[in-house]
Write a structure and sequence with these properties.
163 residues; alpha+beta; Thiol Ester Dehydrase, Chain A; 36% strand; elongated; disordered N terminus
């Protein structure tokens, strides 16, 4: 089954039935520039460790690091672009087990991977299915930087629950 078909060629719609438990994919890379780290932090997480070279250089990290929420957002962007953009999404239901493992520094390149952990029909609406996927991002040194479990609801192609 092809999940990562290029959206520039054609748009494939992936339904609940198409999502296979155990499916794994590398979703691509994302480079965290210093300018983007500072810009995100100034807007959403304005701690000096993310925005001020002088203050950050005196910290245990020895320099500016990305906000954890920026790291999460970058990983989620690749999940959205490479997987969810073709998925028949109804709604996001939540994020569980969000963990920041190591700091992200300017010019780190994150590689994002996902695995479908489970899926089930919605108990209240047979035209909907629920899936959980684990997302992990690591830096170019092979260190995990963020991981989380994403739960979402998608449309079912065939709403007969016996299928």
């Amino acid at each position: 089954m092809i999940y990562l078909e290029s959206r520039t060629v054609s748009r494939m719609v992936v339904y609940f039935e198409d999502v296979e438990v155990g499916y794994e994919a590398e979703l691509g890379t994302y480079e965290m520039s210093k300018a983007e780290i500072v810009e995100f932090a100034e807007r959403y997480d304005p701690l000096p460790i993310h925005t001020d070279d002088e203050v950050a250089s005196q910290s245990s990290h020895g320099g500016v690091i990305a906000s954890g929420f920026h790291t999460f957002a970058a990983a989620n962007r690749l999940v959205t672009d490479q997987f969810k953009s073709n998925l028949a999404v109804v709604a996001g239901l939540g994020i569980d087990d969000l963990r920041w493992h190591n700091p992200v520094r300017p010019d780190d390149v994150l590689t994002v991977r996902m695995e479908i952990l489970e899926k089930r029909r919605s108990e209240g609406d047979p035209s909907r299915g629920i899936f959980r996927l684990e997302v992990t991002a690591e830096n170019q040194r092979g260190e995990d930087v963020v991981s989380f479990v994403d739960t979402g609801m998608v449309r079912v192609r065939d709403s007969d629950p016996a299928q």
